[in-house]
Amino acid sequence: MVQSSIWVAPMAGGPSTPALVRAAAEAGSLGFLAGGYKTPDAMSGEVAELRASGASFGLNLFVPADEPPDVEALRRYRASLAGEAERYGVALPELRLDDDDAFAAKVEIAVGAAPTRVSLTFGLPGGDVVRCLQAAGSLVVATVTSLAEARAAQQLGVDELIVQGGDAGGHSATMSPVGYQGRRPARELVAEVVAATPLPVIGAGGVGTAADVAALLDAGARAVQVGTAFLLADEAGTRPLHREALLAGDRDTVVTRAFTGHPARALRNRFTDEHPDAPLGYPAIHHLTSGLRAAAAAQGDVEGMHLWAGARYAEVRPGSTAEILARLDPR
Hints:
The protein has 331 residues and is an alpha/beta fold. Helices cover 39% and strands 14% of the residues. The chain is built from 13 helices and eleven strands. Strands 1-2-3-4-5-6-8-9 form an eight-stranded parallel beta barrel, surrounded by seven helices. A three-stranded antiparallel sheet has the order 7-11-10, with no helix packed on it. Keywords: Detoxification, Flavoprotein, FMN, Monooxygenase, Oxidoreductase.
């Protein structure tokens, strides 16, 4: 039973462990397992682990892009990374253009597991996908970043909306990444969507304190999804260097495509400064830079890592999932 008005966001790439999701459930919250980046087998194993524990949980899936990337732009970007490859002693992979994150296979796993909620990021699937998930017993939640996206999701027949502001950390869920700069704060966007659509709204973005949670609830959100604060949870799989950078609290955040080809808010570092003109191209750029990022982490170089962080990251503190939920609770 979800009692808290705070949800623990899915954080792909390692932070969202089954232990984090389970700890959220034990504390009366709803935690989301991140399905992105994983193979279907890996995701299936984590889903099975959570089901065996009896914990209520959500599952997040990346919806593949409709439009193909600009291959020539990707080739130019790959060439521009030659110095990074030399710096870290790794070989750049060839462009990988056929990855849809095994979306169909992961939907099939979600239908079989029937988590409490399935959230969708980066786009909207066909109505048949939504209906299959609902028929299995899951509520379907679309992540949106504008009123236009919210209306499209409503027409598709989803059950709820996660309304993500530009102040959120990590990948933006924007379905229109061209020119996205993440300027609209979550509170403003939540109020606009609540006034225009009948669907329940979950606010996301710009949360570092209980007062930030209260502001989104006051704007009309039924609940608030929080990610950055839980990067510092004991149960999260966040890299130690990433934790240290968050705790230092001395960097600006920027919206960058440099690491993955999709807009994401991160701590500013050398990599974001030296690659400001990265083209669109998720997940092709993610595959191009993944070895570079892993090597930077292995060599202790925080300047070459993706350090996802929301605009209010300097307010967050470490602790158990239960302790962080308690600190964020505005009641």
